[in-house]
Amino acid sequence: MTLVIGISIGYYFIALSLYEPSDELYGFPIPKKAEFVQESDKSKSYDWSRTSEENGIPFDYEIALKVNDWKKGEREGASVLYKKGNHTIDLISTTKRLDIIKVK
Predict the structure, then answer these.
(1) Judging by DSSP bridges, how do beta strands 97-102 and 19-22 pair with one another?
(2) How far apart are the first and last CA of the chain?
(3) What span, in angstroms and rounded, lies between the C-alpha atoms of 13 and 48?
(4) I want to staple 46 with a disulfide (CB 3.0 to 4.6 A). Which of 30, 34, 42, 89 is the partner?
(5) Nearest to 96 by CA among 39, 42, 43, 37
(6) What pLDDT does 11 receive?
């Protein structure tokens, strides 16, 4: 039992260490290993091998978002809205591509 708890706690902290908040995107966590591709006034795009349109984002990314108080909202295809306070982010995950867009 202690081993399971230890592994769970270790996984939790490892998962959090894989992501860093982006000041330009209201503190929305960004995968550290994602390769920056392009940006506009309201969005940033990354190449990241761990995302897909079929499966969305990895479980550890979902944990990092939840721990940082981002609430999962509506989903439409590859697009998922996340909300925190008055801010909304549209996270679009396609095959090896991640687009993060400020909605408001």
Answers:
(1) unpaired
(2) 44
(3) 21
(4) 34
(5) 37
(6) 45
